[in-house]
Amino acid sequence: MKFGAWYVAQAQPGLEATAIYNLSRDKFVAIAPSLVDRKQRFYPGYVFVRLEHAEDCYFVNRTRGIIKLLPQHLREPLALPMGWVEDLIGRIERGEFTPKSEEQLLRRFIPGEAVESLIGSMAGRPGRFSHYKKGCGIVIGCLLGKEFEYKVPLHQLKSSVDPVSPQSRSASELVAA
């Protein structure tokens, strides 16, 4: 379990606002992204919660308005990829949340995943995804026997992993699991 990471909690039907209120009273950061008018939720029935400590799972699962942290088939919840919730919030605030941007958001990379750049001097060379930074992916590559980091725009980065392998699970699969 990663601490300081975002997790998905299933809310009781129609009680997302109640769940967020009760979680915030217990000093958790929780959101349920919606349009500006707050009538249309992007992921109805789900709340994103930031957990800082191992025992937080216990308290979140016992919060009024929450059914449980997801996924249910594992002993502990699975963290969303780093930067996923922040990217979602940024796109909503800028009014850039469209079906195309949602598809891009759901095709996120997991730290350590094998990737390659489609442009630049490192195009076609294997690397490992490290983290997100301002709409770009930071990749760890190897050149002349030395590792170094380089930045690639997310739309110019592709996974080098077989699409059916467990390492290539997208955020949509993590949320749906």
Summed up:
The chain has helices spanning 16-25, 56-61, 84-93, 99-106, 171-176, and strands at residues 5-11, 29-31, 46-51, 66-69, 114-117, 126-133, 136-143, 146-153, 157-159.
Task: Explain what this protein looks like in three dimensions.
This protein has 177 residues and is an alpha+beta fold. It folds into two domains: 5-79, NusG, N-terminal domain (Alpha-Beta Plaits, 2-Layer Sandwich); 114-176. It has five helices and nine strands. It has helices spanning 16-25, 56-61, 84-93, 99-106, 171-176, and strands spanning 5-11, 29-31, 46-51, 66-69, 114-117, 126-133, 136-143, 146-153, 157-159. The chain has a five-stranded antiparallel sheet with strand order 8-7-6-5-9, with no helix packed on it. The chain has a four-stranded antiparallel sheet with strand order 2-3-1-4.
Name a few traits of the molecule:
177 residues, alpha+beta, Alpha-Beta Plaits, 2 domains, five-stranded antiparallel sheet, four-stranded antiparallel sheet, 9 strands, disordered C terminus
- Name the overall outline: elongated
Roughly how much helix do the residues carry, as a percent range?
Answer: 10-25%
Q: Secondary-structure element sequence?
A: EHEEHEHHEEEEEH
Give the strand order, joined by hyphens, for the main sheet.
Answer: 8-7-6-5-9
What is the H level of CATH, i.e. the homologous superfamily of the largest domain? NusG, N-terminal domain
Residue ranges: pLDDT <50 for 5 or more in a row? 162-177
Helix-strand category: alpha+beta
Terminal Cα span? 16 Å
